Structures are given as structure tokens and as C-alpha cells.
Amino acid sequence: MTRNTEKLILNWINEMTSDSLKNREIFEQAEKIIVWIVGFSIGVFALQVPEVTSNYKSIEGVRKIIMTYSLYTIIFGISFRISSFLTEIILKDILTSFKSKYFGEKIMLEIKKQHISSETHNANQIIDILNEEFNFNIEKASHQLNENKDFIDTLINIYENSFNDMELLDTITKDSLIYFGYKKNGLVKITNSENFIYFRGILYRLLTAITSLLFITTLGFFLFGAIKIFKFF
User: Which residues cross the membrane (predicted)?
Assistant: First the structure.
């Protein structure tokens, strides 16, 4: 993977993450509104409860409207909060797994070891490999150093150490799954399954739509109830 290609992919991932965070900020503003509305409705409902009998059917007039619409507002408002919370969890999971998949594939691409020796490679060829695979920024060797065996051996050692570091990183990444109760291959197979990725995306879109609908419904019950109450005065 070339550095330019990697840079383009990283920029695209960052833009996608940024857009998702902006959408999340909109939901956070909506949550603040719903928290205020639900809190107000709970207070109004609680004030009415001591003044009524246990039989709901005996409640009439403006008091019944207040209790009915307050209760609807509370129910749909709480449902909105739950749906919003689940949406945020799935969004974070999607972004995390997407980034992990990209960087995981990047590691696997780089971890394919090449056979490098002073007999088959000169210094500049090894430098090109180091710059390409490990994102180093080593300048080209001079004509004398290009064929210098000691310098070539030094570059080969750098390559070997860098490759070992990448192998270690890959091993740590896989072994860390055990600490969360997953087998090494089990989680990878599940999370990389096309069906799993697809249905998780569908679930996120569905929850986003439900959350938006619950916000509108909660706000609607609150405003519609307030309008009906004001008609009594």
C-alpha cells in the first residue's frame, strides 16, 4: 500500500467519522430538549396523582388531558432516550470495527515478509521497501553506499526488526481478544462476516429512523397536549 493511497483512505475515514460525530451532536441537542420535556411532564404528572382517585375512568376534564398527555410524553421520551443510546452504541461499534478492519488489513499486507539479502538487493532497493512497507522516510543512498555490504546488512537488520515489530503487533491484537472472552478466530469470523456487517448497518439505520420518529412523537404529544389544555382557559 503506497503512502499516498494510505493517506487518501485515512482522510476518507476521518471525514466519515467527522460526519458521524456531527450527526451525533444533533442527537445530543435533541436529547437535551427531550430531557427537559420529560422532566417537566413527570413533575406535572406527579402533581396530579395525589389529587385523583385510583380509578382513571373517574378522571375528567383538563386533569385527564394533563395526565394522559404527560404520560404519553414520558413514555415516548424515555423510549427516545433508550433508542438514542442503542444507536450511539452501534455507531461507535461500526466506526471502531471499520477502522480496525482497515488497520488490520494494512498490518496483514505489510506483514508478508520478503526475502532480502545483499546478494539480490542493493541499498536503494531495500530503502524503497522500508519506505513503502513501514512508512519510513529514508533518503536514497549514494553510489558508494548503494553497493556497500555493511550498509546493506544494516538496512536488512532494520527490515528484520521492523517486520518482527509488525508480527508482535499482530499477535498482541489477536491475543487481546481473549481478555474479552473471544476466541482468536471466532470474533474475526463473526465481525468480518458480510451478513453481520450488513445487518448491523441495517439495524443502525432502523434505530436512527426510530429515534427520529420518537423525538417528533414526544415533541408532538407535549405540544398537542399543551394546546388542548390552553383551550380550556
Answer: 33-49, 69-91, 202-227
